[in-house]
Each structure stands twice: as C-alpha cells, then as structure tokens.
Design brief:
22% strand; 423 residues; Rossmann fold; five-stranded mixed beta sheet; elongated; Metallo-beta-lactamase, Chain A; single chain; 32% helix; alpha/beta
C-alpha cells in the first residue's frame, strides 16, 4: 500500500493530517490489527484561527508535522483539542505545543490528571471543556460533547456546528489502514468496525447509549474518528449500527420486568450436571425469572458472551480436578472482561473427589470481576446425595429470590460463621 505524503481535504476548510501504520499487527496487546491502523488528526481552518484536533503516536510525528505544515503555519494555530489522551493520540502534543506556544489546549474535565501523567516535565496550560462549551474560530465553531468512558474516562467528541462534522475520537473508529481514507473508497472494513466495537466499546455499553443521546439528534454530514476510515458516505448509518449493537435484545423476549438467570456447568461423570439440574429446578420455583442452562462440554465461550451481557445472574458449576476448576470454566470467566458484569449476581457449585477447591476459586474470581456473591456455593463429594441436591435447589431458589427482591431473611449462628470461615 502506497503511503500518501500529503494532507487530505475531507471537507471545505478541514484536512486530515494524521499518520498511517499499515504494518501494525497488535494494538494494546489484546487487539489484532490485520490491516494495521491509522492515527487520525485533523486541521480545521476558520477565519479567526486554526484548530488541530488530536495528534498522533510519537513514533509517527514526522508524518504528522509534514502534513500539518502543508495546510497551516504554526503561528496561525489558536486551538488544540485532545478528544482523548491515550498515547496514540497525544504523542505529538509536546512538540506541537513547543512549535505553537500561543495555542490554547482544550481537554475534558477528567483528562487533567492523565495529561500530567502522560506529558511529564512540561508545564502545559490547558482549558477544561464539557458538553455545551464552544470555541470560536470565526466562521466555524467547535462544540464539545462529553462522552466519558468511550473508552477512557477522559473521552469527548468535538463538532463543527456549521458543517455538522463530528470528530468522534475512538467512537465509530476501527483499526483499519487504507491510504484512500474514506469509507466509500477503502476496502471492506466491516469486520474491523464490529471487532473494534466488541473489544473497545462493548464493556461500556451504558456509556455508549448515553453518548448516542447526544449524537443522534445531530444531522451529521461526516464522522471523523481517531482511527480508521473517515465516514463521509451515510455517516448516520454507523450511528444507527452503534444503537443496534448497544441495545439489549433479551428484554424483547422476557420483558423488562423479568429477570434472567444462566447456569453454566461442565461435568466429568455427570455429578456436577445433576447439581446443575437441581439449581435450575430451584430457580424456576420463583415467578418472574427466566432460567437457562448450558453444558460447556459442547464448545467455546464466544456464543455465550451475548447471553451473559444481558443476564442478571450467573451460576457456574465445575468439578475440582487437580485442585482447580476446569479450563472451560476459566475460559468463560476470562471472556467476561469484554462486557460489563459489575453488580450481576454470581454463584458456584460442583462435585469433587478429594479437596473441592474449585468452588471457592470460582467465587473469588467472580468477586474480582465485581459480581455480587451473596450465597455460599454448594460442594458435593462425588455423587451428590439427596440432601446435597436439595441444597442446590435451595441455591437456585435463593438466587431467584435475590433477583426478584423476595429474599427470605434467616438467622445465622456464630458457630455457622466460624465453621464456614474455615472451609
């Protein structure tokens, strides 16, 4: 792919001055980038000043400054906006401020501490902005929209009000490098767009929905994200796609007033499976809870992530093998970092032969993921007895009662607490 050395006009008075990184194959360790990425920066010219929107990764500053100098002089720059302070967007900031010391820097409220941490040993003056604040460039006005946690606490978007051009930061972006830049000219990047949402935005779905409330009323003509193609063809379709991706689907089936409880299990000899059946049976005795169970023996964790994201409660059943829960359980738990699980209810159960550590280990992991684990898990040595299956049924029932606000309060003796603390 040939690298264009030139700045590119994306709208009258506005140029792309970013950098291309086609050879990048992993971003932030966890993201695969088969097509590389771009670090998008923009120059907006008004009749009373010039604004730079975001910069680039430090390793690509030469490209950035070469393109910037094609469209403006440093003494014309009055405004620098950082929609997001991650190093791939702020890497050229110190040198830009050195070359344009008269420019005023605009960042979000939550970006202050990050700025000081990322740009050390340089005394930078900055201005704090929030939704509704503006910067006057004469015939163009920058409007700021606070969009926190998309995907850092500091993120915001910037709009040219007269042209309805949105500089969206990481929102509506993706890791896809193509020197043709525009979505109607580059290769097919749909996979990259969806992959980026799933790994970057999905854990913050509630914040995505909040941001869409600000963005959807705007009659957008162009979306200029911080990574990937510039969206000039049908820009609102990408906003609509975010709405689809962020909107819960399960409530269409079970109703907003009902709760969802999922039971995941894997069983070596059928004993943990018997316990799972008992948990389900107990949970189903409480009206208003939809209960589903899934045997992880069948395969991978990815099909379950969508279900888990919208569920209210998760129960995990695992045998203890070699002093540990089994790998499919850990694989499923590790996949939960890509979605929001904070404050969901969680529980564990399982059969064991010798020591039974798996239950406590699963509970500890659930707490680490910010689940609420209000009910002690159930362990059974080898084949569960009828008494142990009844405890499983009671576990399921109590989970459903917690979900529906029908918890039965009970008195716990001091001896019971002392016994459970030594298990």
């Amino acid at each position: 792919m040939k690298k264009s050395p030139d700045a590119v006009e994306i709208a009258p008075g506005t140029h792309w001055i970013g950098a291309l990184d086609p050879d990048l194959r992993a971003f932030d360790i966890i993201l695969k980038t088969a097509n590389g990425t771009t670090y998008n920066s923009y120059c907006v010219r008004g009749n009373k000043g010039v604004a730079i929107i975001d910069t680039v990764k430090e390793s690509h500053t030469d490209e950035f400054f070469t393109r910037l100098e094609q469209v403006t002089r440093y003494d014309e720059i009055t405004t620098i906006v950082l929609n997001h302070l991650e190093p791939d967007h702020s890497g050229a900031l110190p040198e830009l401020m050195r070359r344009a010391p008269q420019a005023k820097l605009y960042i979000s409220t939550k970006a202050q501490l990050m700025l000081k941490a990322l740009v050390k040993n340089i005394g930078l003056d900055f201005n704090i902005v929030k939704t509704g604040d503006t910067v006057d460039l004469g015939d163009r006005t920058l409007h700021f929209l606070s969009t926190p946690f998309l995907h850092w606490p500091d993120t915001q978007c910037t709009l040219i009000g007269e042209q309805n051009i949105l500089f969206s930061g990481d929102v509506f972006g993706c890791h896809f490098c193509d020197a043709r830049l525009f979505n109607d000219q580059v290769g097919d990047f749909r996979f990259s767009f969806e992959y980026y949402y799933a790994h970057i935005m999905r854990p913050f779905r509630e914040h995505v929905l909040d941001a869409l409330e600000l963005i959807e009323p705007i009659p957008l003509t162009l979306i200029a994200p911080a990574h990937g193609p510039i969206l000039r063809e049908a820009p609102r379709s990408y906003v609509q796609r975010y709405r689809q991706l962020a909107s819960p689907l399960l409530h269409n089936e079970v109703g907003a007033s009902n709760k969802s409880l999922l039971v995941f299990y894997i069983s070596s000899y059928g004993n943990t499976a018997l316990m799972a059946q008992a948990v389900v049976a107990g949970a189903e005795t409480v009206p208003g809870v939809r209960v589903s169970s899934y045997d992880l023996q069948a395969g991978g964790d990815l099909p379950f992530v969508d279900l888990i994201e919208e569920a209210d409660c998760l129960a995990f059943g695992s045998p203890t093998i070699n002093g540990d829960a089994v790998k499919p359980i850990w694989d499923l738990l590790s996949s939960l970092v890509s979605i929001k699980v904070c404050d969901k209810l969680g529980a564990a159960f399982g059969s064991y032969g010798w020591s039974g550590e798996a239950i406590n280990m699963i509970e500890d992991r659930l707490r680490g993921l910010k689940f609420r684990v209000p009910i002690k898990g159930v362990r059974a040595r080898l084949i569960p007895t009828e008494e142990e299956l009844e405890r499983c049924r009671d576990l399921g029932k109590q989970l459903s009662q917690h979900l529906t606000g029908k918890v039965e309060h009970r008195v716990i003796s001091m001896s019971e607490l002392l016994t459970s603390s030594h298990v």
